[in-house]
Every structure is written in structure tokens, then in C-alpha cells.
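Team,

Forwarding the record for the chain on the shared tracking sheet. I've put the sequence and predicted structure together so nobody has to dig through attachments.
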Amino acid sequence: MKILVINCGSSSIKYQLFDMEREELLAKGMVEKIGEKYSVFHQETKKRKIKKTVKVSDHSQGLQLIIKFLLSRSYGIIKNFSEISAVGHRVVHGGSKFIKSTLITEDVIQTVEKYVVFAPLHNPPNLAGIEAAMSALPDVPHVAVFDTAFHQTMPEEAYIYPIPYEYYKKYGIRRYGFHGTSHQYVAQEAAKALGKDIRDLKIITCHLGAGCSMAALKSGKSVDTSMGFTPLEGLPMGTRSGDIDPSIIIFIAEKEGLGFQDVNEILNKKSGLLGISGVSNDVREITESAKGGNHRAKLALNVFAYRVRKYIGAYAAVLGGVDALVFTGGIGEKSADLRSKICDGLDFLGIKLDEKKNKNPGKWAGAINRDDSPAKILVIPTWEELMIARETFEIVQKLGEAHSFKSGRAISGRRI
């Protein structure tokens, strides 16, 4: 069974095509700069890479272009439409309605449209991708996999904010959480790497990239997560502030003569690592500047590591201990220096980092803990598209679309 995974942004479409018999990635690519004067198309298969300048005015044309190249004699990987058995779609916000991935119907589309108010930058292009893909491939199941769904297992005390309860009832103001497919994927892979049943594990996952979030997982389910009503809450990020005193918003607005939208722009796009360092939102550039003696760059890295370490302590308390700490995302996977800073002083929780292993964790599920560490520390590259493909495959199986298919899935998938 071949499953096409679609992830639509406001001016881009990312895609990956999987053969689920071996969880093998057959092709991946992107259409970017949709709607601009010139768009760019990329595709990579085992045989070749291509990059072309094209004209794509909307997501519908983008999907048609993707299918054209997947079917192309020169560049393609499939021979006809019938080889694609299902399409999995990333949808950022599913509110509290969608607690798991679901088959897309008209009712589902209408509900996702209602949640545009919670994710105005993300849900509209997600919906545009769904519409375009269902038009291009009308005879196969389409499945929505929500970033928020994985966190809907949180108890009330974790997701209710201490503000008047009426705002939760009237407007749905609560903690939703994001990066759900990433947290779910790396937790599953951690359990496999450790040879343990995920239901027996207490795991803290750290998705650290341009956007950052952490999650506390007990028995494979999310019981708390750092992002909240929006992706602004939680850890400091590339340009986002993360947790701050809410009164700061009012104070800045009054002192600077700014409207709330202006302050919102500051907190989302001018804060975080960029705001503290004054150098960049890129950890690599900040690290280089810090090595050169820039105090603000050093401070930015120290603040970031301190906040992550604080959340680890909090989540250890929530879980009643830690069996595994998992790092993923661009920063989590690639910055040995920050992993070291984060783990410094956590021996009392049974989290003991091996500095030598930390510098070379390996390509998949690298263990970087000391041999005497009660808690395992793992670096696992996230693969959200594969998680979406797995979720889609399971739903299609339940629909009875795949009775003749016998799964032979690999432990961690095979990349191009």
C-alpha cells in the first residue's frame, strides 16, 4: 500500500510518498513560492533529484504538478493513480473535537474551518491542500492527522487555565498543545529502541527547533505539554517569547504606545533567542557569536537551556519519575552543547549524560546517557510524515480498504 502525505503551508506544499509494506520512503519533495511570479519544485527519489522553476498559482495546481511528476516516465516513481491507496494530511488545529486522526468527510472539513480562529495562519492552507488533493485524487480515502490530537489525553487540571471558567465554555480557551505527531513518533521510536512496551514507560520528549515544545508522556499518552492555547506559550523559541508574565504585554503597550497586535508581533517574531541575543534566531549563529565572547549570545543559550531544564524537572514531578528523555528537532538533534547544558545538574533525577556519546549520538535513536544512568537519554530524528502515514494506514485498514495487505513494517522506516 502506497500512502501520499501532504503538508500544506500558506505558499508551499511538502509531500512524501511511502510504501507501507516496509515503511519505505519512495519520494519526497516540495512546491514552494506558490502564487508568486515563479515557483520552485523539488523532488527526490532514490534514483535522482530534480529542481525546476515553474508557474504555480494555487494549491490545486501545486497538487496537480506533484502528481504529474510522481507519474512522469522520466522522474516518476509510480505508474498510475491507482497505486496511491490513501492520502494523509497534516492539520495543525483540531481543537477539542478531534482526539485522534480521522477520515475526512464534509462534516470534518466544516469543523476544521471553525477552528481557523485558533490557527489562522495554518488551518486555511491545510484546508486548501485537502480540497486540492481530494479533487485530484477523489477515489481514495483522505485522512486528517492533527497536531493537537495527541495531547487531548491531558487531564483537566493540565489543560484548564486559572482564568474565569466561562471563557473556556464560551470560547474554548484551554491548553491544546502542538507538535503532537512529532512527540508521538519519537516516543514510539524510543520505546522500540529501549525494547520496552511504551505502556510501561514515563517519557519526556523535547522537540527543539525554530518552534519548541515539550511533552510528558505516561503509558504512551500525553499528560502535559508546554505549548498551550497557541504555540506562543512554553519554551523560548527562535523568535517566540514562550512563558512570560502576562502583565508585560500591557506594560509594553502603554510604555511604547503600541496596540495589542503590535505587541503580539513582538512576542511572536522579535523575541526568544533572537530577542535576547540580538544576533539571530539560528542556534548555530548564536553559538558562534557566543564563542567569540558575545555576552548576549551566551545569555540566550543559557536562558534556553535553563527553561528546558526547568520543564524537565516539572514533568518529572508530573510523571513521578523519568524512564527516558528524548531530544528531537533541529536543535535537539544537532546541538550537543545545548543538550549538555540542559542535562547539567539533573543527576538527582537519574538523568546522567555521557559527554563523549553526546558529541556523536549516531543517526537514529542514539543513546547518550552514561551506563549507570537510571534514565535513558536518546537523540531521535523526528519524522512527522511517517507518523502521519502510519495513522493514515491504520484508519484505512479499519475501513476495510486493505484486507489483502499484510504489514511488514520496519522498526524505524527506511529513508531515501
